[in-house]
Amino acid sequence: MSLISRSRYLAAGSLSALTLAAAMASGSVFAESVTQEMINNDHLHTDRVTSYGMGPHGQRYSTLDHINRETVSDLTPAWAFSFGGELQRGQESQTLVHNGKIFVTGSYSRLWALDVQTGRLLWSYSHRLPDGISPCCDVVNRGPAIYDDLVIFGTLDAQLVALDMETGRVRWRDTIADYRAGYSYTAAPMIANDLLITGNSGGEFGAVGEVQARNPRNGEIVWTRPVVEGHTGKLPGGEESVTGTTNASWEGSAWEQGGGAPWLGGTYDPELNLIYIGTGNPAPWNAHSRPGDNLYTSTTLALDADTGEIKWHYQTTPNDHWDYDGVNELVLFDMELDNGTVIKAGAKADRNGFFYVLDRTNGRFLSGDAFVDNITWAERIDSDGRPVETGNRPGNPAETEGDRGESVTVAPAFLGGKNWNHMSYSQRTGLFYIPSNEWEMEIWNEPVTYRRGAAYLGAGFTIKPIYDDKVGVLRAFDPKTGQVKWEAPNPTPLWASVMTTAGGLVFTGTPEGYLKAFDDETGEVLWQFQTGSGVVGQPVTWEMDGEQYISVVSGWGGAVPLWGGEIGPLVRHISQGGMLWVFKLHNGGHVASR
Ligand code: CA
Asked: Looking at the domain assignment, is residue 177 inside a domain?
């Protein structure tokens, strides 16, 4: 045994003894396995984070208030962990905390398990990626899922890997789709109805979107549901069924490479047993080649978690011509009207610039209001929930001389009024906190033919700033009135998720490298910390030994530096990175100290 492996062995041995002692001292069950019930109630348990979105409703709200408007100025690093190596690209991951461990994923399909008390590395997994992967928008990963005694995450070559939570040993692997056909995977998988739920990426390559449900213990498929009309899915037991009615909203054979990639993951209502998932742009971007609404692209779907069947759909951008992927999360919340009626609602801040409130039991449209200042593709959303378009679509290249159709300038830009980075709903204020961006684009269409594994756009584009002094705007938005209550501008695009707490705080990060805490009522910055690289991750919080902790990953990247066009010079100076930061109050922050 070499010196290094011996010291590792000794470290592992002493760790087990310590963890066991800690577990016995606190009276907790050693290596408690993760159950669906635990995940369904994640938002009620402050001592762990077992789900993406800090609860199946995806509110990213914590009832913890040790860190609050009075104490937040004492927030200081507890420890930090470097992802190491040379593979530092965008770090968009959300951590999970369970059994004394914190699980975090990083760029290039890597995963680490750390001691949550100290940040010490327990084990790690680095996926061997083949040549020829096709991630459209950086080599990111948004986080793992945990279930039973497994940590499960997806990789850039569209694989799933399930690892033993204690040892990091691979327990099973499976393939979501063929990476050689342009499929990839960057989302965090979701656990719902004791199933492992995944979508896929690849909408820029003509990949067809599909939601898959597996037994999380062994990876066996239970059901699949393609999200483009005409494709065939599997029901439990192996029976097949076609999605929608073939050619009802697509002409000819355009649906066959129709896109719709549900690349972000979803939310779940355990009571209704519905999975809510958004679908991406139809393919190709050139909409002249695919007349019709193109169901179910740029849509929010409600799927029966038992069978995968579509219970309802709400399409935000019919015949999407601008890459307004409708993947944005539907955040589930109970909306109390002035007459006392409580509506089981869901809210979505769409890439197309409108904030939608739906009845999540049946998909009924309740409201649609702009959450950005500049929308030029549609005037408004009508009372039936359909956009009233301005006619601002790129011209048909078939009607012009040469290869390029007439170009138009449209807002928002294709990266959206809000992109993947999640908003948060505060139960304290009843407001949503939206990481929005103000930008526009010049866009034109070109002829395009599908070729397996190749980009399938039929469009050219340049993103442009609208204002001299800001792109990003953090907005507090009232879902009942459709009004912005306050806004906090940022010079560069916001690309980090948001978290709110009962302490009256709103946390999010900036490309400039800061994790910031805002007053949830005024938008005033009460605290900020420079992490050393751009923050495009997802803050979470938990409680441990009577103290409140906050984590976020730092590491600049994602779609903006790759596709940002004229935004590029604003972010060119930002250093790469790969670091998990964990914070707590420096005086211990016990409740009694307030
Ligand atoms: Ca897209």
From this structure: yes
